[in-house]
Write a structure and sequence with these properties.
With about 200 residues, this protein is an alpha+beta fold. Helices cover about 30% and strands about 20% of the residues. It has a domain of about 130 residues: Chloramphenicol Acetyltransferase, CATH 3.30.559.30.
Length: about 200
């Protein structure tokens, strides 16, 4: 059970409509492709987009939900070399080229590492890309004993107040799932305030 799986399970639970049925949430995720010896000395990102599909029901236990998310992540990992556009064509033959299979891209960044170059001083600089290439991007990054979760979204698709409320709900679900895995997804979500009851944004 990895932190990424916990976050992805919580997102899948929040995406569920609450009706008494299994529902599949589709997320995009990025998979690094540096496991081949000939690529390890290449400078720059070597990433492929893959689909994380998680099927959950409200009566699934948290432990079962985590297992389902792990299975979805393993499926995504097995297709890490498959070109994403070809994957889109296979999964949805009639879809236009400018349509995406998912609205949410979730990624897990590695923990920051020390830069060491003999004879050079170096420092890590955060780059703000400003524009979101997907409707909603959720970026998770380890920071010591905690995690920083960044939300980047298209303003014409998502409301800033709604994103802020969903970020708070995600945090609550993650903590609740970690606290115990014997409860059901419905139990976890029942403890959350509804979005209408959440505090109003200024």
């Amino acid at each position: 059970m990895t932190p990424f799986i916990i976050f992805a399970t919580a997102l899948s639970a929040l995406a569920h409509s609450g009706e008494d049925r299994q529902e599949t949430a589709l997320f995009g995720t990025l998979i690094a492709q540096r496991d081949r010896a000939e690529w390890r000395q290449v400078i720059g990102p070597l990433l492929n987009v893959s689909i994380l599909a998680v099927s959950l029901g409200p009566e699934d236990s948290v432990a079962e939900a985590i297992r389902r998310t792990r299975d979805g992540a393993l499926r995504a990992y097995r297709s890490r070399y498959f070109p994403f556009q070809e994957l889109v064509s296979l999964l949805s033959p009639g879809r236009r080229g400018d349509e995406s299979l998912f609205d949410v891209m979730v990624t897990m960044q590695p923990a920051p590492s020390e830069l060491g170059f003999e004879g050079l001083a170096a420092e890590l600089v955060e780059i703000d890309t400003v524009a979101a290439p997907y409707p909603l991007m959720i970026d998770i990054e380890p920071r010591g004993d905690a995690y920083r979760v960044s939300w980047t979204y298209m303003a014409d698709r998502f409301d800033g107040c709604d994103v802020e409320q969903q970020a708070s709900r995600l945090c609550a679900v993650v903590f609740d799932m970690v606290a115990g895995t014997d409860r059901t997804v419905r139990d976890v979500l029942r403890l959350l305030p509804s979005t209408s009851a959440a505090r109003a944004c200024p």
